[in-house]
Amino acid sequence: xxxxxxxxxxxxxxxxxxxQLSHGEFFVIENLASAWTSLAGWSVRDAAGTRIALPTTVxxxxxxxxxxxxxxxxxxxxxxxxxxxxxxxxNKGETxxxxxxxxxxxxxxxxx
Length: 112
Hints:
Layout: E1 5-11, E2 26-31, E3 37-38, E4 43-45, E5 51-53, E6 59-60, E7 65-69, E8 80-81, E9 94-99, E10 105-111
Parallel strand pairs: 7-8
Antiparallel strand pairs: 1-2, 2-7, 3-6, 4-5, 4-9, 9-10
């Protein structure tokens, strides 16, 4: 089963606070479809089992991508923020799962 969305990168343990303005941890999500794809109902889950819903009001353009910051601030227009006070990605490697609207794991992305 193919998926229109994929996680294509993780940026873990930046210098300073992991949820700080413009320099916090993030992952990259990409829309592989040739049409706009809504993030409504999609979520991510880390290796510890923490499940976070992606914003319901955001859609990615065809072949578009966005940085998804775990904190409250993004670095530029088009960034997505999860509005968390504390980081949830592991600093020494992480497996992040992308779950579709039905809760089915569509991708496992592991960063050493």
